[in-house]
Amino acid sequence: MRIPSSASAVFGLLLLLPPGSSLAASVSVVTTTEDLAALTREVGGDKVAVDFMGHGYQDPHFVEAKPSFILKLSKADLLIAVGCELESGWLPALVQQSRNARIQPGADGYLDASLSARILEIPTGQVTRAMGDVHPLGNPHYWLDPGNGRRIAQAIQQKLAAMRPADAGYFQTRFADFDKRLGEAEKRWDSAMAPYKGLKIVTYHRSWPNFTERFGLDVIGYVEPKPGIPPSPTHTVELIQDMRRQNVKILLVEPYFDLKTPNSIGRETGAKVLVMSPSVGGEKEVTDYIGLFDHDIKLLVTAIKETGAR
Ligand SMILES: [Zn+2]
């Protein structure tokens, strides 16, 4: 293969750059989800190169492992994972196959974002297979509380600062700016959701406990009989009865689930089936963390008003 002379000149220049110079300071980050990539971009700005594996429109429990992921991981300085076993079905083998010592669990280049977050639904007793896909470390969909978004961003800031001390001030300023914008956005979301405190809803998967706790909604049931277990006729009949009894008019469905059962529940109960994405990238127009809540809360409030639930 013939390398164009300009490319080889650039390559030669890169080799000559002293460590700590601005080009060499760029941190190569790979995240498991688009949410973590978005938070990393907030803090890292142009001092990081961020890539992700699972798209926001995919079920994060079941991301198809691709050879390209191994390549990405082999070059990464930092891997950021959701943790709480969300990626336990697909990530460990990829990390191992990357043969990258920097990003193995326990190494400095492995950041488990759950360790800095407030985790709900941590089981108290023994976890058995009969309980379905229950995570012994608690519910892994914790990024859907803006308070946790802030905690994750701060953990990323601290990690990047430790890896690139020369840029610590830059990451600190970026975090402070994100923190401020998030605080302003939270006021907007709180006032939009305030009239609906205690509103009863049903969701397909247990993706929303942090979101519903933060915004005061009451989840009375799930389309899945147990987390990760597909709908069953018996459970669906019971759910329909519960929804009628409690006058539930909103059924939230994550974009990667089949709509057949939700639609039939909607027909039986008069509830509105609302497809709502729990992740950045779940819809084309949702490209950052604050935008995810802006989008979802607008969608939800519009649906609540339509159903006349309040
Ligand atoms: Zn889950």
> What is the H-and-E element order?
HEHEHEHEHHEHEHEHEH
Q: What order do the strands of the largest sheet run in, or round the barrel if closed?
A: 2-1-3-4
Any low-confidence stretches, pLDDT <50, length ≥5?
1-5, 7-15, 18-22
Helix coverage percent of residues? Answer: 40-55%
Mean pLDDT: 92
Present as ligands are: zinc ion
Number of strands: 8
Task: Determine the strand fraction and express it as a percent band.
Answer: 5-15%
Q: How far apart lie the N and C ends?
A: 67 Å
Please outline the major beta sheet.
4 strands, parallel
Radius of gyration: 22 Å
Per DSSP, the total helix count is 10
Q: What structural class do the secondary elements suggest?
A: alpha/beta
Shape: globular
For this entry, give a set of tags:
single chain, 310 residues, alpha/beta, four-stranded parallel sheet, 10 helices, 8 strands, 43% helix, globular, disordered N terminus, binds zinc ion
Give a concise summary.
This protein has helices at residues 5-16, 34-44, 67-75, 91-97, 146-163, 168-193, 209-215, 233-245, 260-269, 289-307; strands spanning 27-31, 48-52, 78-81, 110-112, 200-203, 218-222, 250-253, 272-275. With 310 residues, it is α/β, with parallel strands linked by helices. Strand 1 (27-31), helix 2 and strand 2 form a beta-alpha-beta unit.
Descriptive notes:
This protein is an alpha/beta fold and 310 residues long. It contains ten helices and eight strands. The chain has helices at 5-16, 34-44, 67-75, 91-97, 146-163, 168-193, 209-215, 233-245, 260-269, 289-307, and strands spanning 27-31, 48-52, 78-81, 110-112, 200-203, 218-222, 250-253, 272-275. Helix 9 links the parallel strand 7 (250-253) and strand 8 (272-275). Helix 2 packs across helix 5 and helix 5 (146-163) runs antiparallel to helix 6. The longest helix has 26 residues, at 168-193. The radius of gyration is 22 Å and the shape is globular. The N and C termini lie far apart (67 Å). 40% of the residues are buried. Mean pLDDT is 92; it is low at 1-5, 7-15 and 18-22. The chain binds zinc ion (ZN).
